[in-house]
Design a protein that fits this description.
It is built from 28 helices and 30 strands. Among the domains are: 305 residues, no CATH class; 112 residues, no CATH class. The protein is globular. The protein is an alpha/beta fold. Strand 22 and strand 23 form a beta hairpin. Strands 5, 6, 7, 8, 9, 12, 15, 16, 19 and 20 form a ten-stranded mixed β-sheet that branches. Keywords: Cobalamin, Cobalt, Disulfide bond, DNA synthesis, Nucleotide-binding, Oxidoreductase.
């Protein structure tokens, strides 16, 4: 009997021959004859997403979902991925339908293309894949959910790299290609370095425009298309080589536009993102991420303060020289100001390139995790690491390998059955078949395992898991190749491709086996040995197999606490309850971590109660100092000081990079008081650690002022004292009122809002703190006068009964209603309402400088100021989303995150882009 190869990589796989037809798919997660969906408990819900002012932006009733799925996952899937017109009979209403549509389509294509040894193997594949998706162990990227089973030849890839040459025809074709990609919900990146510089001549005479000029047109198209009907905003990456003669203009172009936006905000234009006619809508380069491509030679020139040559694109002649260190300073000053440009390390990228005989790697997708040949595409998928946590708290390497095998096979089947936007991308996708398998929930897994994110043990564990994932992915690719043959470009690239596999395998020996899980390291070493052996024998089916994407929307679909390679953001979250109300809960990973660290049930209970009340673990009873680092998060807690240093993020990226075909999408968040020198240190250290790319984002560097959406019950609960939310802490029997003395100092302030004049008088205690407020806005007896008098009285009573002024300022600042407009006050040039002005003025007058700057948003430097002119105070703002009956977290940080274009909620940083924790929308490409 002809031997058949197993997906599980058994001994049979090592003896397989190219002539054998089809893979044997052995059951691992499922039982023959039992539908995986029938093994789960199901229920019907109403999926609803509320936007500004509580207005429903999406609602679908009678949605069938697994009981284990959260309300947020329900809302995201129903609003983003269900196909058919809302309210029509053809509209999908069940997760069974959604998963069935995708799985059956992939299974049918696998049968058609001969991937399975028999019909039983095809049925097993469908069953096993369904298990992964229904159990939230894995998810494909969004285009698969959008399009597979809906269109005959669906677009399945989220990431594209487009070539552009030095001709008008090529430049205009790039604009068309990008526009079509944005329309179908994908992102694209391009390196514009082949375009001749503005310092070179056109062939017909005259000076060339240069790439930065054309970037304005590309940016305008991206801004117009934005979401393209697929619930996703346009995502774009623009890259320029460090030796391009226009590199200095490129480095500064986005920062200069940022200064223009500041000036417009000062002149009265709305500072919010996604605002038609607002400040940021009126300047260029807001729809793309920018990166400079640097080589090892350039980085060494920076360290040595050497000259750096800028070379012509037409003939390679040197057109000028700059000091490399001065150019790096311009890069980091611009990144300090606006977050761009990032840096991509060209030498490192191409040193790990599997197909250099075809061409070099010039560019990446918008989030910088997919890096491959020009005119290529990558379909992504991510595994949920928390679902591979074993009963004893370890990592289940066997089930993880099985999930890798199934996912790689599914992604491989998609390649030849997908549609691509250009003929060139289609050819390269067929010829090189790059895939992007990654994972999510690393931060949650490390915390649950009792490992600090920023620790040698945390990095060793992450490296071992990543090595296992990519090693098994390449081993599976080689098994598939044993039946189908390798990718078409393998023969021309055989030696460099296999050399890269051996390089990955050798890197496993650099993992500290004393700190990493021994069984995972051993499994990773065995997978890489098999991948190299089978690769030499069969070749590999896929030129690339892995990346670490930001996993925005699909992370919500899988109910991940953390996305991609990110650590946890905060220790608490808020959950709306069915029928109203809100529950504040400590993240599920915290008790798992405490249990793993050996705390008793009583100790765990007291620590959780402390975190619930204080939103920090610092100072919690029973917590041992050596364990505090386990609970460090990306953002500093409201009542604590601990946070993960930005170098901790970079070191984690350096630990896992040697085990990825592609790169890592992760913005390194830096505090507002970070300097341009700190950013340079981060870039240099990233290069030394072998990263392929890095982008930083200094908190508060954008001067956007997101629209204040109506605050709901969850937000109110987040801002009152803990005992008011839970009713569990003992209330004092009587609150004491602190009255002001009969004679007290006071200050009167005259103001004007949009031409409406008023006066406010603040009475003060002996210590100078405010204790009463009077506001006069109109004639006595008028409605406005009565309302403002009553409002001022309530504020006075609140102050006298001990409500902190900071709480009142946080609550009422940035509320929006008429009258609003210019004020004439240079510290508060525009007020969104009377209460907005009052409390921003109070914060500036009476709160410490840090708090006052936070509330009033006057902590940004004036246009044109250099980073050395001042140091910004660390500013924070609680960002809360509003999913109907959903699960959410409070995030402290990202003070300038834009509002979601779909529902208006404030987004949070996600890799190089943003995600909305309310409706699941992302501004990225994965």
């Amino acid at each position: 009997m002809m031997e058949r190869e197993s997906i599980a990589g058994s001994k049979r796989s090592r003896g397989s021959r190219r002539a054998h037809k089809g893979l044997v798919i052995e059951r691992y997660f499922t039982t023959a004859g039992v539908d995986p969906a029938d093994e789960m408990a199901w229920e019907t819900r109403t999926a609803g997403i509320s936007g500004e002012g509580g207005k429903m932006v999406f609602e679908q009733k009678d949605v069938e979902v697994p009981k284990s799925w959260s309300a947020l996952a329900t809302n995201v899937v129903a609003s983003k991925y269900f196909r058919g017109a809302l309210g029509s009979p053809k509209r999908e209403r069940s997760v069974r339908q959604l998963v069935g549509r995708v799985v059956k389509s992939i299974g049918a294509w696998g049968r058609k293309d001969g991937y399975f040894a028999s019909e039983d193997d095809a049925a097993t594949f469908e069953s096993e894949l369904s298990h992964l998706l229904l159990r939230q162990k894995m998810s494909f990227n969004s285009p698969v959910w959008f399009n597979v089973g809906v269109e005959e030849h669906p677009q399945c890839s989220a990431c594209f790299i487009n070539a552009v040459n030095d001709s008008m025809d090529s430049i205009l074709k790039l604009a068309h290609t990008e526009g079509m990609l944005f329309k179908y919900g994908s992102g694209a990146g391009s390196n514009l370095s082949k375009i001749r510089s503005s310092k070179e001549m056109l062939s017909g005479g005259g000076e060339a425009s240069g790439p930065v000029s054309f970037m304005r047109g590309f940016d305008a198209f991206a801004g117009v298309i934005k979401s393209g009907g697929k619930t996703r905003r346009a995502a774009k990456m623009v890259i320029l080589d460090a030796d391009h003669p226009d590199v200095e203009e490129f480095v500064s172009c986005k920062a200069e536009e940022e200064k223009k936006a500041w000036a417009l905000i000062e002149a009265g234009y709305d500072g919010g993102f996604n605002v038609h006619g607002g400040a940021y809508d009126s300047v260029f380069f807001q729809n793309a991420n920018h990166s400079v491509r640097v080589t090892d030679d350039f980085m060494r020139a920076v360290l040595n303060d050497a000259d750096w040559a800028l070379t012509a694109r037409t003939d390679g002649k040197v057109l000028g020289k700059v000091k490399a260190r001065a150019l790096m300073a311009r890069i980091t000053e611009a990144a300090w100001l606006c977050g761009d440009p990032g840096v991509q390390f060209d030498t490192t990228i191409n040193a790990w390139h599997t197909c250099p005989s075809t061409d070099r790697i010039n560019a990446s997708n918008p989030c910088s995790e997919y890096m491959f040949l020009d005119d290529s595409a990558c379909n992504l998928a991510s595994l949920n690491l928390m679902h591979f946590r074993s009963i004893d708290g370890g990592f289940d390497a066997d089930s993880f390998k099985r999930a890798v095998d199934l996912t790689i096979l599914a992604q491989e089947i998609l390649v030849s059955n997908a549609r691509y936007p250009t003929e060139a991308i289609g050819r390269n996708s067929e010829a090189y078949r790059p895939l992007g398998l990654g994972y999510a929930n690393l931060g949650a897994f490390l915390m649950a395992s009792g490992l600090p994110y920023d620790s040698d043990a945390g990095r060793a564990c992450a490296a071992a898991i990543t090595a296992l994932m990519t090693g098994e992915a390449y081993a599976m690719s080689a098994r598939i190749s044993g039946h189908t043959g390798p990718f078409a470009g393998f023969a021309a690239n055989r030696e460099p491709c296999l050399a890269v596999l051996r390089k990955h395998a050798a890197a496993v020996d650099t993992i500290d086996a004393r700190l990493a899980p021994a069984d995972v390291v051993a499994a990773a070493r065995a997978c890489w040995a098999e991948a190299v052996q089978l690769g030499q024998k069969n070749g590999v089916r896929n030129a690339q197999v892995s990346v670490l994407a930001p996993t925005g929307t699909i992370g919500f679909m899988m109910d991940c606490d953390t996305t991609g390679i990110e650590p946890d953001i905060a220790l608490v979250k808020y959950k709306k309850l069915v029928g109203g109300g809100v529950l504040k809960i400590v993240n599920n990973t915290v008790p798992l971590a405490l249990q793993r660290l050996g705390y008793s049930g009583e100790e765990i209970g007291s620590i959780l109660q402390f975190i619930d009340e204080m939103e920090t673990i610092e100072g919690a009873p029973a917590i041992r100092p050596e364990h505090l680092a386990v609970f460090d998060c990306a953002f500093k807690p409201r009542n604590g000081n601990r946070t993960i240093h930005y170098m901790g993020h970079i070191r984690m990226m350096g630990a896992v990079q040697p085990f990825l075909s592609g790169a890592i999408s992760k913005t390194v968040n830096m505090p507002s008081d970070a300097t341009s020198a700190d950013i340079e240190q981060a870039y240099v250290e990233a290069w030394r650690l072998g990263l392929k790319a890095i982008a930083v984002y200094r908190d508060g560097c954008k001067r956007s002022q997101p629209l204040n959406s109506g605050k709901d019950k969850a937000q109110k609960a987040a801002e009152v004292e803990p005992e008011e939310v839970h009713g569990v802490a003992e209330r004092p029997e009587r609150l004491a009122r602190r009255r002001l003395p009969d004679e007290r100092h006071a200050i009167t302030h005259k103001f004007s809002i949009g031409g409406h004049e008023g006066y406010m008088t603040v009475g003060m205690y002996e210590d100078g703190s405010p204790g009463e407020l009077f506001v006069v806005m109109a004639k006595e007896g008028s409605v406005v006068s009565g309302l403002m008098d009553s409002f001022a009285t309530s504020v006075s009573m609140a102050l006298q009964y001990g409500v902190p002024l900071r709480v009142l300022c946080d609550k009422f600042s940035h509320t929006r209603y008429e009258p609003s407009g210019f004020t004439g006050n240079p510290e508060i040039p525009i007020a969104k309402s009377i209460t907005d002005y009052i409390f921003r003025w109070l914060s500036l007058k009476f709160l410490p400088s840090e708090d006052g700057a936070t509330v009033s948003r006057t902590n940004n430097l004036p246009p044109g100021a250099s980073p050395s002119a001042a140091r910004l105070p660390a500013s924070t703002r609680t960002v809360e989303a509003q999913p109907a009956e959903g699960s959410q977290r409070t995030y402290t940080g990202d003070t300038d995150a834009p509002a979601c274009p779909t529902c208006g909620s404030i987004t949070v940083r996600n890799g190089a882009c943003y995600k909305c924790v309310n409706c699941g929308s992302t501004t990225g490409c994965s």
